[in-house]
Amino acid sequence: MTCAVLCIGTELTRGELVNTNATWLASALTDLGFDVIEDVVIDDDCDRISATLERLGKAVRVIVCTGGLGPTTDDLTTRAVATTLGVRLVRDEASLESIRRRVEKAGRALTPSNAKQAEFPQGADILPNPVGTAPGFGVTIGGASAFFMPGVPSEMRKMFDEQVVPRIRTLATRTTHQVRLRTYGLPESVVGERLAGVEEAFPGVLIGYRAHFPEIEVKVLARAPSSDAAHELCERATVEVRARLADVVYGDADDNFAGVVGRIVRNKGFTLAIAESCTGGLVGHMVTSEPGASEFLLVDAVTYANSAKTRLLGIDEEVIRGHGAVSSEVAAAMAEGVRRVSGADVALSLTGVAGPGGGSAAKPVGTVFIGIATASGTTVVERHFQGDRQRIQVAAAYAGLDLVRQACA
Q1: Is 104 left (phi over 0), alpha (psi -120 to 50) or beta?
Q2: Which fold has domain 2-171?
Q3: By the number of CB atoms within 10 A of the CB, which of 78, 134, 312, 402 ranks highest?
């Protein structure tokens, strides 16, 4: 069953916003068994919206659209759909009342621009929005079932799961199954080399890759005559993929690196302390972005200045003066210091030159020393990363968390 994703918004065509909706919807539709053949982005222009809908209505069986349902003058999607269908806009009183309650609960009065969101093409199937003011709707355009949802990702995802999926699930015959594996530690080219021959060994399987620095996502997609057969084929191929990438696969599609490392620390019953310099709190941010961090993370000290290293972590000034803030000795002292003041089981430290300036011949930009201190002793590794400041910081943060993972293994 063919499907297209349409995202509407001038802010998207101008590059002012990253279009995360398209990626999320395409993945969700693929998981449902649809064949997503187009991903279209157009600006807020009635004629172009209408022309695109007419074309897609002839090309696919399902259209899933986001954006342009808001209260402002550039939100034109509903009017464009009515024009495409040759029908008038009609107000839905139930939707209007729901919008009124939400607006008044926020301490505002209902305005004509808000009321506009309760107008739909005549005959549309209205999709309630439990978390926002813009309801969605469904219509038939040409030979396609078309669904229109808000552009706000949190609103769109809930509406898709609760309103759209029940309406389209039976339209697709599930003959595919996909497993997504998250990896860290190898470049895409090496990952690809390790998986050479898997597709030939498992006819019907396609291996795909998505690079998102510093991770590589590996997608194992299987096609077979039935859903059960596709699932069985995919699982067999995935066993082989995992075996070939055993040292770098850290989780599945919904995992992220910091969350997995955090679970390892928590499951071991350990506590963690962090002392950061060149990463400026990035490691702590990654760890605390995941729920449950309060169960194991005791402190994240951003000791950027040398004075903070001495006052907060108790590092001897002579160590910094003699070896420099970016050194193996200071990294070791930072890890030991933050472990001592926090009482943590495991302590991580990072100090380096993130750039763009500050490097030298001996310690060029990208040089980072990472320390791990435990009851068994202290270990420091020296790493050299490439790229701009942000890339170096991200690479260092991942490398630090990877050392925590190894220390807790």
Answers
A1: alpha
A2: Molybdenum Cofactor Biosythetic Enzyme; Chain A (3.40.980)
A3: 134
Exposure string over 251-275, b if 16+ CB within 10 A, otherwise e: beeeeebbbbbbebbbeeebbbbbb
* Closest to 245 measured CA to CA, from 187, 203, 200, 202: 187
Question: Where residue 154 falls among pLDDT bands split at 50, 70, 90?
Answer: very high
Complete DSSP assignment for 97-144: HHHHHHHHHTT----HHHHGGGEEETT-EEE--TTSS--EEEEEETTE
Q: What is the DSSP string of 22-52?
A: HHHHHHHHHHHT-EEEEEEEE-S-HHHHHHH
Instruction: Retrieve residue 209's tokens.
Output: 């890759």
Copy the structure tokens of residue 268: 């071991």
For 48-100, what is each residue's pLDDT tens digit? 999 999 999 999 999 999 999 999 888 999 999 999 999 999 999 999 999 99
* 3-class SS string, 286-312: HHHCCCCHHHCEEEEEECCCHHHHHHH
CA dist 306 and 200 (Å) reads: 57
CA dist., res. 138 & res. 147, Å (int):
4
- Terminal alpha carbon distance of the chain: 45
Superfamily covering domain 257-407: CinA-like (3.90.950.20)
Domain extents in the chain: 2-171, 176-252, 257-407
pLDDT in tens, 173-212: 888 899 999 999 999 999 999 999 999 999 999 999 999 9
Please say whether the beta carbons of 369 and 327 come within 8 A: yes
Q: What is the pTM of this model?
A: 0.82
238: number of CA atoms within 13 Å, CB side? 20
CATH-assigned architecture of domain 176-252 = 2-Layer Sandwich (3.30)
Place of tokens 């990472």: 370
